[in-house]
# Entry
Amino acid sequence: MDHYTALGLDRRCSGAQIRAAYRSLAKRLHPDVNPNAAEAVRQVQQLNAAHEILSDPQKRRAYDRERAETDRAARSTSRIARHISQDVRIRIEDLFRGANLDVRVSDPANRNIEERYELHIPAETAPGTRFRLSRDAPFEGGFVQLRLRVLPDFRFKMRGSDLHCEMRIDARRATAGGVETIALPGGRRVTVNLPPGVGRGERIRISGAGLPRPRGGRGDLVVRIAYRLAATVSRRPATDH
# Structure
């Protein structure tokens, strides 16, 4: 126990206050007048140790220095600069449109504590972008690094900064060629120019219609052509009843 606490005093107390507190507590805690003799003996031992140190100016100064160093070390320990890295799963459209996410982070060193952060993703953000957020107390100086990971999409596939998708057309459109449009995940529509006689499995590359790149600009949209099966209708012959 802290010697000042044992006497019921703070560190700014005078020598006279130390002597007065010691005399008062020594009378009250004396084993002869205390029903709990074992506890009284323990408290009197603490009281005597506190009085011995604090009543001597030289010992008191040494004790105060030691306590100050201990307090500084405790404060330094409580300000842990610990860093955490975690992936954040987002949709493809979040890269184009931007998003505000409520992210929950668990510290590997203490799974019982969950931290929450507001993550703002600007529009036109590249996949794999990392965001660094400062941590709150008691981790001042530490940070959380959040890396964007894109969830699989049923229509669009990512290959670097390029987007790949499939377009189904009928045989007549393939023969004649023409113009089709595709809606990107962010909602923007792009034009696909089909050359006459475009073949099944052929790929058409549209420059600058893909994903945002880390250093600016966009990748490409790669459209794979597939043929739509034509429905056939046959008339069943009438049957006599």
Notes: The helical segments are 3-7, 15-29, 37-54, 57-78, 92-97, 171-176. Residues 57-78 form the longest helix (22 residues). The chain has six helices and eleven strands.
